[in-house]
Amino acid sequence: MSLIVQKFGGTSVADTEKIRAAARRAIRAQKQGHRVVMVVSAMGKQTDVLLKLAAGVCERPPAREMDMLLSTGEQTSVALVAMAIHDLGSKAVSLTGGQIGMKTDNSFSKARIRSIDTRRIERLLEEGNIVVAAGFQGIDDDLNITTLGRGGSDTTAVALAAVLGADACEINTDVDGVYTTDPRLLPEARRVDVISYDEMLELASLGAGVMHSRSIEFAKKFSVPIHVRSSFGDRDGTMIVAQAESESAAVSGAALTKDEARVTVLGVPDVPGMSRTIFNAIAAQKIAVDMVVQNVGAEGKADVSFTVAGDELDQTLRAVESIVDSIDASGVTHDAEVSKVSVVGLGMADQKAVAAKMFRALADAGVNIQMITTSEIKISALVPREQSAAALRAVHEGFTLDQRPADAKTWKEIKAEAAVEADVHDVVSRLQNDALEALTLTDIAFVGGQARVTLDGVLDQVGIAADVFEEIGQAGIFIDMIVQGFDGEDGRTSVSFTTDEANLEASIKVAEQICEKHAMRGVRGSAGITKLSVSGIGLRSHTQVGTVLFDQLAEAKINVEMIATSELQVNVVIDSAQADTATRRLKAAFADALN
Ligand code: ADP
Ligand code: ASP
Ligand code: MG
C-alpha cells in the first residue's frame, strides 16, 4: 500500500476550522488507499508567541530550556489534529519527536537529525491509524528535547518521507507552490511548475522561506520528490525534483535575505591561518557565514568581510572580538542595516554576462552594491536595507522572471520523458540510519590554469559593477568567480574576478581602461592560480566544512586568495604550485564524508 507524508504548516492549522480541514485532507488520502503520516507545525504564530514569552522572563534564555518551551507548540497541534480525526470518525495517534524516535545531536535550536526509528510509526499505520507527528523536534542521547531550527517541520516531513520510503511528500502551506520570488514581497512573481533540488536549496538558504533549506538537503540526498501546494485548495502546486523547469533560462528565481549583517575584520595580517582563526571562532557557534571577501590592502594587511543572518550578529561579534587580539588585527566594524539579494539558476553556469545583467538591473534602479559574491548557480549582492525591495523588484524584472521561459516544461512532461522517480526504498536501504543528516560530499576537484584580476580603490557608487562586467563581457571574456569586497579604510571597494589564464592580458587591458574611466586606484593581475572545489549537499549549513578546509590549508601554509561558498560548493582560489598538496590534504581530511 502506498505511503504519503502530508505536512501542514502553521497557517494551515491556525484555528479549529483549519485543523478540521487538515484532518479531512488526511482522511481523504487514507480513504483513497494511502497510509498517511501527517507532520504538523505549531498553530499559527505560536512559536513566535513562545519566543516572546521567553524574552519576557530572561534576556538570554538557556538554549535547552528554549527548546523545551518551543516544542510545546507542536505538541499542542498534533494532539488537536488527532482529536479532530477521531471526531470525524477515523483513527489517529499523535506522537512527539521523541515518540517517533527522532534522535538528534545536542545542538539546541539547530539540532541535526541522526536517526529515526520507524518501527512505532509502521506499527501504528499497520493498525489503520493516521500517524500525526510533531514537526521541528527531536531528542538527544540524554533524552533532552531539541528543535531543528525555525521552519524545521519541513525537514521532519522530508526526513520521515525518506526513511519510510514514502511515495509522496506533500508540503501543505499558505501559498499554492514555489514562486520565482516571495509573492508577498513581489505580487508579479510567477508560480513555477517544477524546480530543481539544487535551485531550491540555494533559494531556501538565501531567504526563500517557503521551504526549510535542510529539508531540501534531505530530499536531494534521498531522492524524495516534494509537492508544495496550498492547504486551502486542490490544485497541483510545484514539484521539487532533480530536473529544472527550463534548460535555457539563466536564472530561475530570486531571493532576498532582508535581515543580513556585514562584519569586517580590519587590518588582518595577510599570512596563512588568519582566516582560519576568524572562521573557526564563528563556526564553533554553528553560525553559517556567507559572502566571504578578503581585500588585500597595503603593507601586507587585509580586510576580511563576511555576512551573517541579522539575528546572529551579536553572537558573531562576540566570537570575533574574542580572537581579534590574538591575530593582531586592528579592529572590527559591522553594518546591521543591509540586505542580500540573490539570483539562482542552473542555467547560469554556462552562460556569459549573467552577472553583468544583474548589476545593470540594480544600477538602473539606483541601488548601490556594497559586496558581491558568486558561485556556479547563484549571484549575491549586498545592498542597503532601505533599497532591498527595489533591488528585488529590479532583478526580478531584469531577468523577466514573471514570464514563463519558452522551453519551460510541466511536471507531467518531465515525468513522461524520463523515468525520474528514483526508487526511494532502494536509496534508503543503501544509507545507514545512524547519520541521516551527516555531511555528504560528492567530489573534491581543482581547475588549474586560472588568473585573477583585481581592480583596487573602486568608488562606492551606483553602476560601477555593471560597467566593469559589461565591458569585460563585450570584450568576449568569460569570467568565473566575482567578488567585491567592502574596503574598511576609505569607503572604497575592490573588485576581483577569475578567468582562464589565456584571458589575462586582455582582461588587464580592459580593466585598465575601466580603471582610468572611473578614477580607480589601480589594476593587479596574476596567472598561476587554481580553483579548488569541494562539492556536496548543504555545505553552508554544515559549518565544519569551512573549519576543516581552513585548518588543512593553514597547516600546509597555503594562502587562500579568494573564497566563494554556496550550499553546493565551497571554492577557494590558491597558488597553483600548492594545488596538489591542498587536494591531497582535503581528500584525506574529508575521507569519511566522501561517498
Ligand atoms: P508554513 O507555515 O506552511 O511552513 P511558511 O510561512 O514557512 O509556511 O512558508 C510559506 C511562505 O513562504 C509564503 O507565504 C511566502 O510568503 C513565503 N515565500 C518565500 N519565498 C517564496 C517563494 N519563492 N515561493 C513561495 N513562497 C515563498
Ligand atoms: N513551529 C516552528 C516554526 O515556527 C517550526 C515550523 O513551523 O516549521 O519555526
Ligand atoms: Mg515553513
From TrEMBL:
Segments crossing the lipid bilayer: none
Q: Which reaction does it catalyse?
A: L-aspartate + ATP = 4-phospho-L-aspartate + ADP
Alphabetically sorted, this entry's keywords are: Amino-acid biosynthesis, ATP-binding, Kinase, Lysine biosynthesis, Nucleotide-binding, Transferase
User: Which pathway does the protein contribute to?
Assistant: Amino-acid biosynthesis; L-threonine biosynthesis; L-threonine from L-aspartate: step 1/5; Amino-acid biosynthesis; L-methionine biosynthesis via de novo pathway; L-homoserine from L-aspartate: step 1/3; Amino-acid biosynthesis; L-lysine biosynthesis via DAP pathway; (S)-tetrahydrodipicolinate from L-aspartate: step 1/4
Give the InterPro entries listed for this entry.
AceGlu_kinase-like_sf, ACT-like_dom_sf, ACT_Aspartokinase, ACT_dom, AKii-LysC-BS, Asp/Glu/Uridylate_kinase, Asp_kin_monofn, Asp_kinase
- GO MF assignments: kinase activity
E.C. number: 2.7.2.4
Ranges for domain ACT come to: 263-341, 343-429, 453-537
Family, per entry: Belongs to the aspartokinase family.
Identify this protein by name.
Answer: aspartate kinase
**Organism annotation:** Neorhodopirellula lusitana
Specify the taxonomic lineage: Bacteria, Pseudomonadati, Planctomycetota, Planctomycetia, Pirellulales
